[in-house]
Fold this sequence. Notes:
The protein has helices at 10-15, 32-41, 47-63, 100-114, 127-135, 164-173, 270-280, 297-311, 338-359, 367-372, 404-411, 440-447, 466-474, and strands at residues 5-8, 27-31, 72-74, 78-83, 120-123, 139-141, 157-162, 175-177, 185-188, 216-217, 224-225, 230-235, 242-248, 251-254, 286-291, 317-322, 376-380, 392-396, 419-424, 454-459. With 475 residues, the protein is of the alpha/beta class. It starts with a strand and ends with a helix.
Amino acid sequence: MTRKIFILDTNVLLMNPEAIFSFEDNEVIIPLAVVEEIDDMKNKSSDLGYNARETSRILDRLRTKGKLSEGVEINDDGILKVIINGDTGNLPEAVDLKKVDNRIINSGLTLSQKYPERRIILVSNDINLRLVADAFGLEAEEHRSDRLSEKELYSGFLELSVTKEIIDEFFRNNKIPFEKLDRFVIDNNYNNYNNNNDSNNININSKSNSNNNSSANNSNSGINFYPNEFVQLINQQTSRQSALGIIEEDYLGKLRYQQREVMGIKPLNREQTLAFELLLRDEINLITLAGKAGTGKTLLALAAGLEKVVNEDIYTRILVARPVIPMGKDIGFLPGTKEDKLQPWMQPIFDNLDFILKKSGQSDLTFNKLVEREQIQIEPLTYIRGRSVPEQFIIIDEAQNLSKHEVKTIITRVGKDSKIVLTGDPFQIDNPFLDRHNNGLSHLASRLRNEKISGHILLTKGERSELARIASEKL
């Protein structure tokens, strides 16, 4: 069978240097223009800079096997080559060859002429480059090896249509074993927003096709239950009777905090109730909260953090951090002290804190007093690296703007007896290299859903205001 030839764009390597090894026994081509772009990025202190340096290290290591220009072996039978950018005669004179994208396209066209019998594929996460490639008749596709499919996007919630007797038994015993649920079907897996509709409807997909076999699984049915996943039991005859539960060991258990008010904040809908359930359970050390703007993700996390630090004394401090990249600027371009620079980026945190402290009913509790007691610390995410953070309630806001590597870096900073909560909106991403299928928040929720110490919930209903809800849905 003839090997395919895959030409890698720079952004593929900047998102995942190991992508070089994800093409099995085929031939992988890296144009010189890509190497030059990687070199330009290597001095950046961001995640992109790290990946640029890692890519250079991988290429240098492979260079010990032979000349990259002639090809070196990877993946046992695969080949990697670094090539000059191609014959300039392949492109019209009007095309600017100083532009890196055009040089990459030119590499593909040259290879197509040289090997007409082989399938040449440009791999890029840049939509526009794929469109240009298509215009020149060059096959192009997105790099998918590190992307989650629609079925892999985890919601943390499912609905089961059951008999009245099952619900009655659940309320009577405060739990029900998995084997009692084996003959019932999933109404929907509550997985993703339906963005093609004006409402906040959820796509309906069977969960029985999940290929993750290490979950809490009822072997007699096709249903996979994950630790700390929420299940709503709905009466088959009437939707007026239902029950909410959480997966624990080999049974569906009753919620502990269903009617709980936290620091004066009451859950306003089902998903907020479920979020508080995760946030208030001390045995769950990692929580991801996803949802559109106004669903209450940050508010709930801060309220639970204050409850655990101020009232219950479970943790010594709340540490709040968020990436400073909304407009692609670092905080260094602003004048003033660190606090002055942080003010615009952290204002949403301050707004939520102010609202919670007013609702708490504790007149002596203010932000300044929390700072004086060292019970709260607010920092840009940059300062998290290199630290060890024990016995703290950590909140990472806007986590949808983080890559998988950045999320891994943050999680590995979490010290003993700490809890970490990551919040974000996977449909509002400012990082140009990320989307809802490959961002760190979605990846973390999906990959850790089998762990007993982690939990996730997708919040769908906006509660900020009627205007905010309408704007989120209609605009």
